[in-house]
Design brief:
Layout lengths: L3 E7 L3 H12 L3 E8 L6 H15 L6 E3 L38 H11 L4 E5 L4 H9 L7 E7 L15 H5 L1 H8 L5 E4 L1 H4 L3 E2 L1 H10 L2 H21 L3 E2 L1 H10 L4 E10 L10 E4 L10 E7 L1 H12 L1
Parallel strand pairs: 1-2, 1-4, 2-3, 4-5, 5-6, 6-11
Antiparallel strand pairs: 7-8, 9-10, 9-11
Helix pairs in contact: 1-2, 1-10, 3-4, 4-6, 8-9
This protein binds beta-D-ribofuranose (BDR) and calcium ion (CA).
The site of beta-D-ribofuranose (BDR) has 16 residues, from helix 1, helix 5 and helix 10.
Length: 308
């Protein structure tokens, strides 16, 4: 089968790094470009991290462009899940030799999409600033977006309520609103589902057994990331962003529920919350496929295969 053309918009971030790794190494993916955005760290840092990851992966042929420096309508509040550098605990990353694209990330995205022969899948794994801006600035490229599979949101479920907000949406809720209200084909892979895809001892063992140079580096990253997570949330490291990438390639990894989703931009304790109207109380058409369940074992098999 022909590989799926994908663009990743990211803010690396350990889990963003694993998403880039899988996208580069999976034969099912044709990674045609990468853009960076502020989020886990300032833009300068997420971009430097991205270039170093691409260098490590030998993915220097994939063009990378830097996007927005701040969210659309508010100052940047940095993420805390990856340490101040956005990629703490990664001593082996080489200095990049590849050059950053000269264009701004949003213009670069528009150009790549316009030049694409067929519609492309967008996988945003950071705040949605670049994608929101893209849709505002270049509405014509909508026709070239096959679908958007994004890591973002946290959806209420009866048995569990982790937190009302998730970082990528909280960081730029205005951009998130533009994206979910765009009428495009949107899948949201939210925190309530990504927190089921945890790296803990059994996964460390499986990755350790692969024994390649790359898998050893990944093991170190993930051990660091797991420790950070456990300290903050009491559970292992959630592979949020790689799950979104995997779902972009194999939608059967998750179950979804269609809903009309809105972004809370006025709440005090729920600011940035993703509110899904599953019962259609508002009588609005569904705008998002909300991930509701995941086959974590199958996801990890995909990860291990990409490391072999
Ligand atoms: C999201 O926030 C970031 O820390 C991760 O990279 C992921 O994209 C999870 O809330
Ligand atoms: Ca991210």
């Amino acid at each position: 089968m022909k590989p799926t053309k994908v663009i990743i918009d990211c803010d690396p971030g350990h889990d963003d790094a694993i998403a880039l790794l899988m996208a580069h190494r999976m034969p099912e993916v044709d990674l045609i470009g990468v853009t960076t955005v502020c989020g886990n760290a300032p833009l300068e840092r997420t971009t430097a991290n991205c270039l170093r990851i691409m260098e490590l992966l030998g993915a220097t042929g994939v063009p990378v462009a830097a996007g927005c420096v701040t969210p659309l309508g508010r100052p940047l509040v940095l993420g805390t899940a990856d340490g101040p550098s956005g990629l703490d605990g990664s001593p082996y990353l080489p200095e990049p030799t590849m050059e950053l694209q000269k264009e701004h990330g949003v213009d670069f995205l528009a150009r790549l999409l316009r030049e694409a022969e067929e519609p492309v899948v967008l996988v945003p794994t950071g705040p949605l600033t670049n994608i929101g801006m893209l849709l505002l600035k270049y509405p014509d490229v909508r026709a070239k977006i096959a679908r958007i599979v994004l890591m973002g949101g946290a959806f209420y479920r009866r048995d569990e309520y982790i937190t009302p907000t998730e970082f990528n949406i909280f960081c730029d809720p205005e951009a998130a609103a533009i994206v979910v209200e765009s009428g495009l084909d949107i899948t949201m892979v939210g925190l309530d589902v990504t927190m089921k895809v945890l790296v803990e001892e059994p996964q460390f063992e499986a990755i350790g057994a692969i024994g390649t140079d790359l898998s050893k580096i990944v093991l170190d990253w993930l051990r660091y990331y797991e420790k950070l997570h456990r300290g903050q949330m009491g559970v292992g490291g959630a592979l949020h962003d790689p799950l979104a990438l995997a779902v972009a390639i194999d939608p059967t990894l998750i179950e979804t529920r269609n809903a009309f989703v809105q972004i809370d931009r006025t709440g005090t304790h729920t600011f940035g919350a993703t509110v899904a109207d599953y019962w259609n109380l508002e009588g609005q058409p569904d705008n998002v496929k909300v991930a509701s369940k995941v086959d974590a074992d199958r996801f990890f098999e995909m990860l291990y295969t990409s490391l072999r």
